[in-house]
Amino acid sequence: MNIKSLLLGSAAALIAVSGARAADAVVVAEPEPAEYVKICDVYGSGYFYIPGTETCLRIGGYIRYDIGGGDVGSFDGATSTDTEDGGSNDTWFKHARFALKTWTGQETELGTLKTYTETRFNFQNNNRDSGALGDVNAAGNGDTVSLNFAWIQLGGLRVGKDESAYNTFIGYAGNVIQDTLVPYGDFDTNVIQYYFDAGNGFSAVISLEEGAGGGTPGSYGVGTIDSYVPHVVGGVKYTQGWGAITGVIAYDSNYEEVAGKVRLDITPMQNLSLFIMGGYGTDDNLTDPTYNFPAGGRGFYKPWDGNWAVWGGGTYTINEKTSFNAQVSYDEGENLGIAANIAYDIVPGLTITAEVDYVNAGKIGDPDTLGSNHNWTGITDGDDAIGGMLRFQRSF
After folding, report:
1. Band of pLDDT at residue 380, cut at 50, 70 and 90
2. Least crowded by CB within 10 Å, which of 154, 196, 212, 219?
3. pTM score above 0.85
4. Does the domain made of 54-395 have the CATH classification 3.10.50.40?
5. Confidence at residue 159, expressed as pLDDT on a 0 to 100 scale
C-alpha cells in the first residue's frame, strides 16, 4: 500500500464517520419550568407567596436619622462631657435606626393565621452624659438591638411580644415625634389577647399582660408582674365614618390599682382629623408616686402625675405631600407638653419631619420634701424647656 492509497482511505473513513454522526438527531433538554414569585393581594400590597406554600409574606421597614437640639428636658437636646475640663456642655442629639419588619398571612379552617415581627437596630451616639444635669440617659450611648414585636395571631387570638393594648387599641397620642411629653402608658410587654370585631363598627379586646421593668429609659413605671397574676386590660370601640369612640381600662396586679382612658376621634373634613383623650388612675397603693420620676413607682398604666391627664391634637393634610401635626398634653401635676411638626414627603417613601417641642414642669406638694416631681430629668419643678428635632425617614 503506497502513501497515496493510505491518504485516500483515511479521508473516506473520516467522511463516513462524519456522515453517520450528522445523521444522529440532536437532543436538547427541555428547560425546567421556573417558579416565579407570585403576588398575594389578599392582605394588602407588598405580599407575595413563599414558593411552595400557601403563606403570604411581606418584608418592610425603615431607616431613620434624627437630629435634635435645644434643652435636654424637651427630650430633643443632649449634653456631652467637656473634653478639656470635664464639665457638661449642651450639644446635638443624634440617633440612627434600622427597623426590619415582617408580616405573614395564611387562611386556615380556624381563621386567618398571621404573624408580625419588628426588630430595631439603634446607633445611640447621642452624646448624653451624666454630667452637670444628672443622669439624663445612663444607657443613651450604647448601641442596642431590640425585638419590639414578635406575635402570632389565629383568628382573634394573639400571643407573643407586643405593645400593651392599653395603648395600641385606643391609639397613640397623635402624629408627633415626642408624643409622650406627658406619658400615657408604658408599651413593651408579653401578651395573651383576644380581639373581637362585630363587623358593624363595634370591636373589643381583652389582654393579659406581663408588663416591663421600670426605672429604665423608656419605661415609665415598675410594671413587670411579681406573681402568677397578670395585668389585665379590656377595651371597647365604636367606629363610624365620622370617627370613633374608644375606652380602655387596666388593672395593675402589682399595686392592685386601676387606670383607664377614653378617647374621641373625629374627622370634621376630609383633610382634618382631631382627637381628645383623657386618663384617670387610682394611686392608693403606689409606692413613692411623686419622687424622682421615673424611678419612683407609678405603675405600668398610670405614668402621669396625679390622678388625671388629658391629651389632644390632630393632623391637617395641607396637600398630598405635606401635613401639619400637633399635640397638647397636661396632667394633674401641672405638667404641660406641646409638640408640633411639619411632615413633608420629598419623594414616595422618603419623609422629612421638622418638630418643635415645649414642656413646663409642674409640682405637687412641697418640693423640698418631695424632690423633682415631673416627667423630665434635667429640669426642676416650675422650669420649662424647648427643643427641636429634624427626622429623615426612608420607609419601604
Report:
1. low
2. 196
3. no
4. no
5. 98
